[in-house]
Amino acid sequence: MENKKTNKRTNTAKNKGNVKNNKNRNSNNTKNAKNTKNTKTKQKKKMSTRKKIVLVLLLIILIAGGVFAYKTYKNGGGLTGMLATAVGHDENTKKNLGEFRCLVLGISTDEEGALLTDTIMVASYNPNTQKATLLSIPRDTYTGNTPSRATAYEKINSVYSRHEDPQDVLDEVNEITGLDLKYYIIIKNEGFIKLVDAIGGVTFNVPIDMDYDDTSQDLHIHLKAGVQELDGDKAEQLVRFRHNNDGTSYPEEYGDNDTGRMRTQREFIMAVIQQTAKVENIFKLGQILEVAQENVLTNIDFNVAKDYIPYAVEFSTENLLTAVLPGENTNKNSSGTWIFVHDEDETAALIQELFYDRDLEQPTEEAGNTTGNETNSTGNTTGNQTSSSKVSKADIKLEILDGSGNSRNLQKVVDELESAGYEVYRTGTTNSTSKTTIINKKDAADTILENIQTILRVGTISNSQSSSSKADVTVVIGRDYK
After folding, report:
1. pTM beyond 0.85
2. Strand pairing of 339-342 and 327-330?
3. Residue 327 — left, alpha, or beta (φ > 0 → left; ψ -120 to 50 → alpha)?
């Protein structure tokens, strides 16, 4: 009996305990539910806050992107517009930029360790007209005052080696050209090689077979004529070549020895510009800049360079005009040293045409090939009109520029016109053009212009008066010339 009572009390106690535990569990469940609800509420609030932040950021990005896109559009659109906007330009920046000019020097080391400037060029670029110029200065150009007693030490290619000061060369070039150049770029041979390799090589048409060895400079040039891809080493061989081991060099119509080398250098630079501008080379910019930092010396301020770079990326070598300083080679001096003496009058006229009269000089592809009554930009007519001439055939000075891309055409045109009694005072190359154009620079008679047209069997006649030009008539040979 006592055991039953004890069991009953025990069961009652257990039941009370279970009820209490159940109450505690229910209480805990209620608390957990509340906590879960609170947690979910907090999470929802956090998610809502994050969404708001993301939306605000997206809105900011869209607004900024819209502003950037608008500015890019105002800056001309495309890659140029994007770059111009990225460096902080507006639509008026380019309008206020003048023509950029600088001296370009290619430095090599001779057998005695002297630093010689194998390449000397004046380069210019106008972002508003998208026209550029390369003027070669022959490395043997005399910088002294008495040519009859000239020495190799007075050639312009030795000026840099005296003090290794580019300002010395800059001063000499300014004295010769009359330009006021302030900037220079010096490229070491090693840097030139690395740059060509960095852009993946350059496809180029080597004009002739090249076979030359100079053990004193460890220079060995062995290239076959024809279109090929040149790596850095072969590119150096190309631009340093003057003549073969047997003494032969470029053909006369191309430009013998140093004249031919300068032409090859200019044309190779044009090829480098074209191929560096490839889209895939944008991803190699870091490597290219590293090569430049190690091997290029310049006094061009970054703030100056960044103003021109956005517009230079769309430059076409079709708008590049190239020329050589006019003058003659001579060794008529006491030492028998070969020097190049520039012609001061012709140099002044050439500088005027290259750097100041570019907009007036070049014909456009849209000029057509009509040869009748053609109206020029000034409203005058050429062709069948009657005109009073101040210049006779015997006194006409012709300038012949090859824009056909075929070097043989230049000599052929010169021969044809000189055989007809005309004086050809200057020849050169210019940007490629499909149509031959005969440009009246002074006041040549219509009959003279038509006679030239008849001799060449092709050509559009136009007027582009230039009082500073030494040429009376400029003939630009196009690809239509046969």
Report:
1. no
2. antiparallel
3. left
